[in-house]
Amino acid sequence: MRIATWNINSITARLPRLTQWLETAQPDVLCLQELKVSEEAFPGDELRALGYESVVNAGGRWNGAAVLSRVGVEDPATALPEAPGYEGVVEARAAGATCGGVRVWSVYVPNGREVGHPHYEYKLEWLAALRATAEKSAGGPQPFAILGDFNIAPADADVWDLAEFEGATHVTQREREALAALEGAGLKDIYPRPLKYDVPFTYWDYRQLCFPKNRGMRIDLVYGDEAFGAAVRDAYVDREARKGKGASDHAPVVVDLDV
DNA sequence: ATGACAGATCAAATCTGA
C-alpha cells in the first residue's frame, strides 16, 4: 500500500496538478492539507472519477484537511477530538479515516506565526490534543499514523540555514517537545529519503529562488506507530512535484507499506 | 533542469503562509 501526504496550497488552484500526480504516483491513500476550499466547492466528483473516496474537513478560505482513499473508508472523522479553537473558532485542520486496515490522520498543525503570539500557544495546545488522539489509537495491531504539515522542523538539520530561524517558530524547543510527546505516545518519525541533496526537505518558499537553491525545510512529517513502522518498505519526498509553474510550495511525502 | 511569491477574498488591498 502506498500512503502519501501533501500540503497542496489550494485544491482548487492545484486540481490539474493533483489529478496528474494521482495518476502517475498512484497512491492508495493521500492526506491533503491547505485545501483552501469550501465544503461545497470540494472537487469530490473529479476525485471519485479517479477512484478516490474523500473524507473532507473544509474551512473555506483557509486551512482544510482531507483523506483520499481508493482502498475504502471506515470510521471517517472530520474533526480532531478536543481540538482547541482560535479566537473562538475551531478550524478545519484534521481529517481521519481507516483505509485498507490502516488508521490515518491528515493534519494541518497551526503555524504559530511568532514565538509569544497567541497563535503560538494555540499551536502547542493543538499539538497536545493531537497527542491525546495518538495515545488512544497508537500501539494496537492496526497500523496507525499521523501524516501532514506539522509546521515544525524536528531537528536543526531540517532547515536549510539555522541562523535564518533564530528566534522564529518551527524550530523552538517547545514545538519540538510537542513532537517528542508524540514519540512518547508510541509514534516514530518515518524519515524519508531525499531524491536529491542530503536532507529530505518538503517545503521551499516561493520567493527568492528557494527551490532551485534548495533553501527548504522538512516540516511535512509522517508519525507512525510500531505496527505502521514495521510495515514501511520505503519513504521518500517527491520533489519532482515541486517543480515548474503552478506547483504547491510543498512536495508530497510518499510511504510504501507492506500491507 | 530550477527561476525571482501565491492564493482567496464582495474586486483592491489585505491577510496568511513559514
Describe this protein's structure:
Helix content is 21%, strand content 25%. With 259 residues, the chain is α+β, with helices and mostly antiparallel strands. It has one domain: 4-Layer Sandwich (Deoxyribonuclease I, Chain A). A six-stranded mixed beta sheet has the order 3-4-2-1-14-13. Helix 1 links the parallel strand 1 (2-7) and strand 2. Helix 3 runs parallel beside helix 4 (173-184). The mean pLDDT is 96. It binds one DNA strand of 18 nucleotides through residues 9-10, 12-13, 34, 36, 60-62, 111-113, 151, 165, 168-170, 203, 205-214, 217, 219, 242-245, 249.
In short:
This protein is an alpha+beta fold. 21% of the residues lie in helices and 25% in strands.
Protein topology:
Blueprint (H helix, E strand, L loop, with lengths): L1 E6 L7 H11 L3 E5 L10 H6 L3 E5 L7 E5 L4 E4 L16 E6 L2 E7 L9 H20 L6 E6 L23 H12 L3 E2 L13 E2 L11 E2 L2 E5 L1 H6 E6 L15 E5 L2
Parallel strand pairs: 1-2, 7-8
Antiparallel strand pairs: 1-14, 2-4, 3-4, 5-6, 6-7, 8-12, 9-12, 10-11, 13-14
The structure holds one DNA strand of 18 nucleotides.
The rounded distance between the terminal residues' Cα atoms is 6 Å
Strand ordering within the main sheet: 3-4-2-1-14-13
CATH level-1 class? Alpha Beta
Radius of gyration: 17 Å
